[in-house]
Amino acid sequence: MAEKTVYLDHAATTPLKKEVLDEMMPFLTINYGNPSSVYSAGRTSKNAIEDARERVAKAINANINEIFFTSGGTESDNWAIRGAAYANKDKGKHIITSLIEHHAVLNTCRQLEKEGFEVTYLAPDEFGIIHEKLVEDAIRKDTILISIMFANNEIGTIQPIEGIGKIAKEKGIIFHTDAVQAIGNIPVDIKELYVDLLSISGHKFYGPKGVGVLYVKKGTKLQNYILGGAQERNKRAGTENVAGIAGIGKAIELASERLEDYEKHTRMLRDKTIEYIINNIPYVKLNGTIEKRLPGNVNIAFQFIEAESAIIMLDCKGIAASSGSACASGSLDPSHVLLAIGLPHEIAHGSLRFSFGEENTVEDIDWFLGVLKEVMIKLRTMSPLYNSLMKNQ
Ligand SMILES: *Cc1c(COP(=O)(O)O)cnc(C)c1O
Predict the structure, then answer these.
(1) pLDDT, tens digit, for every residue of 214-240?
(2) Within a domain: residue 1?
(3) pTM of the model as a whole
């Protein structure tokens, strides 16, 4: 074991906050009543769910009857896309999304293609931005749904959601956005956007895993996805994850209270990291854009190295980082996002993501950057390509 650990993978998941656990604990122990039961133990659970619904609604400036609890970001994405597609299939069968969506969106769209829907996958520019004009041009008479993520989980690019939403609204097309990476990192105000469906996941902002939210704007035609009992006003069946729901309510409340400080802190660590790497490690390139970027996201291509080897060497020192999205790691294919912004395979294979959180200190980052530099020197001395380049200089 390394003597110290520095966790730099907040885009994959965050630790659970003590205050959030405290909020959850009664519903994992003494308050076990089923929220559908009418006696007092049931009502206690029911009240906890409705308190959480209020907290979520307040955090994104929505109405409480537009908030539905799910089992996470993946279910919210599946429900939004399948639900909107099937509820509106009489109007048309065309869906617009992008090449850089999370797999929860991409694989749902791929499945819908097999079921007779047509999907247009828009390409981002070299910085990872999906331009509004592209969306507008892709719209057809039979387009029923547009799904574009709020912020990308790998390269942190923030999309022009308000502009895309306006276009969708003008054309009367349902607009879904996967806001899983946005919530807790940048402001999200439903009233300022033109969004009909929005996905949220608890574990990306210091809440528990296995609980999420789908925001459904009043009047949006959406088919049910999980079928069964009458929970969540007949829209999402299954006995509620009361502890998880209480947890996500507390976590989103804390996240919106501390949003400004959090943004400031993570942006400072991000900029420090980018500056150090660019100035101290040769043959590197920032993936994504610096302007429209999540405050806590760094994604850098290091030439002449394999990201997987770097991850292992960093792990030996106690540093947790990522070579792509959690879903891409474990497979040998390079990230679909990095390929979509035009990186060649070997550069995509040498890309690392560091994502910061509130418990990361400046001292931790200074130490990490020193370790990173050593790791890169070590890995490059083992690279035949790098050595022959040095010889020929
Ligand atoms: C993590 C993530 C998801 C999946 O959320 P889960 O709650 O882990 O299922 C979906 N979309 C994005 C952008 C994510 O980062």
Answers:
(1) 999 999 999 999 999 999 999 999 999
(2) no
(3) 0.97
Q: Are residues 178 and 113 in the same domain?
A: yes
Indicate whether 35 and 104 sit together in one domain.
yes
Q: Sheet harboring 212-216: ordered strands across?
A: 67-70, 212-216, 197-201, 174-178, 143-147, 94-98, 118-122
pLDDT by residue (tens digit) across 47-81?
A: 999 999 999 999 999 999 999 999 999 999 999 99
Geometric angle at alpha carbon 61, from 56 and 66, rounded to 5°:
65
Residue 74 alpha carbon, nearest atom of ligand 1: 9
Annotation says 327 is catalytic: yes
SS3 for 176? strand
Burial 24-51 (b: 16+ CB within 10 A, else e): bebbeeebebebeeeeeebebbbebbeb
Does any ligand 1 atom lie closer than 6 A to the CB of residue 207?
Answer: no
Query: Ligand 1 test: best mutation among 100, 149, 176, 181, most atoms within 8 Å of CB?
Result: 181
Residues of the domain holding 154: 18-257
For residues 50 and 249, give the distance between their C-alpha atoms in angstroms, rounded to a whole number.
Answer: 9
Mutational pocket test of ligand 1: of 108, 150, 178, the residue with most ligand atoms within 8 Å of the beta carbon: 178
Locate the ligand 1 atom nearest the alpha carbon of residue 13 and give its number: 1
The domain boundary residue, chosen from 211, 231, 257: 257
CATH number for the domain including 364?
3.90.1150.10
